[in-house]
Design brief:
Radius of gyration: 19 Å
Helix content: 10-25%
Shape: globular
Strand content: 35-45%
Strand order of the largest sheet: 1-5-4-3-2-6-7-8-9-10-11
Largest sheet: 11 strands, antiparallel
Structural class: alpha+beta
């Protein structure tokens, strides 16, 4: 069975069944009283559109369904709406699922990232392919103008979780095979035969499926 997370329809169906009509009153986010992004161009969200999805509570491990949610990349927090009021989850949840995929925290710290950091889980096997979506604020000043413009700039990076360690992954063959550490001859032949381009996330997932014997 492939563990590549490509069919979100099936994921939502499974998680909705698991939720079994549990409601969000068992877990509380904090209310949002103002929008601090009004003077910044662009969007801090992975996707501006609200999405139905699920969250997993840290304190009891249960899954809850939400009608409207979206991921704030800048603050690395999930925003949701209930009774027409906006709220945010921070450390209260360990996983959430939206139309954009599965996002999970709890991985070991690496670089400037901590166990509270959310990654998008692209491949969920013994070895996991993770994607860290971020946004930063870039300040620009037009020539011969005293006015500064601030805008959100989106970035992403791939990581591999293997044997309890998170390693940043360059999008090339050598970097991937070095992190995997074994089966290199077999995997090199597979990459060549399948004409895979490891700059593509879907091709990296195919290599991981081969590595794990899928």
């Amino acid at each position: 069975m492939k563990k590549s997370l490509l069919s979100l329809g099936l994921i939502f169906a499974a998680l909705a069944a698991q939720a079994q009509s549990m409601f969000i009153q068992d877990i509380n986010g904090r209310p949002i009283f103002e929008n601090g992004y009004t003077e910044i161009e662009g969007s801090p969200y992975l996707n501006d559109a609200w999405s139905r999805g699920t969250v997993k509570a840290k304190h009891n491990g249960k899954t809850y369904e939400l009608a409207k949610m979206r991921y704030d990349l800048y603050k690395d927090e999930l925003e949701y709406e209930e009774n027409q009021k906006p709220y945010r989850f921070g450390n209260e949840i360990t996983e959430f699922v939206t139309n954009d995929g599965i996002f999970r925290s709890g991985f070991p710290a690496t670089e400037s990232l901590t166990a509270r950091t959310f990654y998008q889980v692209l491949y969920d096997g013994n070895v996991k392919l993770l994607k860290r979506n971020t946004v930063r604020i870039q300040t620009e000043k037009l020539y011969s103008s005293a006015t500064q413009t601030k805008r959100f700039m989106k970035e992403d990076a791939l990581y591999l979780f293997k044997n309890g360690t998170v390693t940043r992954l360059k999008k090339d063959k050598k970097a991937l095979l070095d992190v995997l550490g074994d089966k290199q001859t077999e995997l090199e032949a597979f990459i060549k035969d399948q004409k895979l381009k490891l700059s593509k996330e879907e091709d990296v997932m195919k290599v991981l499926e081969k590595y794990e014997g899928q």
